[in-house]
Design a protein that fits this description.
About 30% of the residues lie in helices and about 10% in strands. The protein is an alpha/beta fold and about 270 residues long. It binds iron/sulfur cluster (SF4). Iron/sulfur cluster binds next to helix 5.
Length: about 270
């Protein structure tokens, strides 16, 4: 069976997870240490209790050069040129090969945001191209869309050495560029993949168990879109695909998160032959 074959495997609660997500993944060594389940917490069930961060009325909204540009392709190019051969945080001198900006549809309704590039991403200059990327592709396909229809980026754009979790300061230094990308793309939904992405985007600290299972109203911090009709979007949190490779038992939970996103976007999973 190929990796894109699609049939459904029943879960214990009667739901089903697409086979493209559920298929057993070979064991791989991923050193990214994401505390996906929080402090010893078991996988959550439903009621999320985390409150969304309140808008900071004192936040300074700086005018960005791309805000006068209506074409999102050109606007993203301006942000990329602004980033340049970035040396703004310590990650620039810790073995990165290149800055991994982001990839996908500049007018995407759906954005995925991960933690940071790994070795494959650093080598190819594109986010989510390794084994975790293959699983993300399968997750996107299971939602009835393709990788080309979404936009994919990370909180930090340079590979942390040994795939360590990026430091808070690195996230805070790099994420303003991601915020600008989001303001240009103007998605309807952002999916934060893993705890680092969720905590950075939402500016809140909570376990994955608390963060998942609900939508947050999200506006990219420190920047406004040039479209007065776009006043932010929804944000959902799910597990990072690298974590799902390490603990495939959580794939069913991740699929529930994606189904919530699909309902919001009016997406339907592809029909199966079984
Ligand atoms: S991670 Fe971001 S802020 Fe740090 S050097 Fe790379 S591009 Fe610059």
């Amino acid at each position: 069976m190929g990796i894109y074959d699609f049939y459904r495997r029943p879960l214990s609660d009667g739901a089903s997870v697409p086979e493209s997500i559920a298929m057993a993944e070979p064991e791989i060594a991923i050193s990214t240490s994401q505390p996906e389940l929080g402090d010893g917490m078991s996988p959550r069930k439903a009621t999320a209790v985390a409150a969304p961060v309140e808008e900071n009325i004192f936040e300074v909204i700086a005018l960005k050069p791309e805000q006068s540009v209506s074409d999102p392709v050109k606007a993203l190019k301006i942000i990329r040129e602004d980033l340049g051969d970035c040396t703004r945080c310590a990650l620039h001198k810790q073995g990165r090969k290149q800055v991994v900006f982001g990839v996908g549809n500049p007018k995407a309704d759906l954005m995925f945001v991960g933690e940071g590039p790994g070795a494959d991403e650093d080598a190819q200059g594109e986010p989510f191209v390794g084994r975790a990327g293959q699983l993300l592709n399968n997750m996107i396909k299971a939602m009835g869309i393709s990788r080309e229809q979404v936009y994919i980026a990370n909180i930090v754009k340079c590979r942390p050495p040994g795939n360590r979790t990026p430091e808070r300061e690195e996230c805070e230094t790099c994420s303003p560029f991601l915020m600008r990308q989001i303001a240009v793309i103007k998605p309807k939904v952002v999916v934060a993949l893993g705890a680092v992405a969720a905590k950075t985007l939402l500016a809140m600290s909570a376990s994955m168990m608390q963060l998942r299972g609900r939508f947050y109203d999200f506006k990219p911090a420190g920047v406004r879109s040039n479209d007065p009709n776009w006043d932010g979007c929804k944000l959902a949190v799910t597990y990072h695909p690298a974590f799902l490779l390490r603990d495939p038992r959580q794939k069913g939970e991740a699929w529930k998160d994606l189904q919530m996103v699909m309902r919001e976007l009016g997406l339907k999973a592809p029909k199966t032959n079984t």
